[in-house]
Amino acid sequence: MPSFTFMRREFLHRDISYHNILIHHFDQMWTVLKISDFGLVKILESSLTSKDSSVKGSLNDPDLTKVGFASYEVRHEIYALTQIVNFILCGKKHGNGLYSESQAVKGFLLKGLAANNSVFTNLALGPNK
């Protein structure tokens, strides 16, 4: 999703959910994914999020309740995006099944859902850290 590659350089969405990724098919040739609802966006350079902010959003990494919403970072976006990818691939929400037709894809999804997905965080940040 190129949109999230661009976004991670400037801000974090913080509310990635099944309802905020819109999919539209055009003439059976093109599929467009759109990101919506930017009400919880966090500009990376900003310190406006209070340490006491409550956790918001729907596909949150369980670790987020421990570290707090003020500590939201790329790895939490990856956790939510992994759930979206799983849903697109197999039509099941995390907890109701994981895509398993390909061991490589399943392994990729499990890394994204892992408590320590630092491997993906480093990949997501790439050369523009």
From TrEMBL:
Residues 1-129 form the Protein kinase domain. GO terms for molecular function: ATP binding; protein kinase activity. SUPFAM superfamilies: Protein kinase-like (PK-like). Gene3D superfamilies: Transferase(Phosphotransferase) domain 1. It comes from the Bacteria. This is Protein kinase domain-containing protein. It comes from Paenibacillus contaminans. The lineage of its organism: Bacteria, Bacillati, Bacillota, Bacilli, Bacillales.
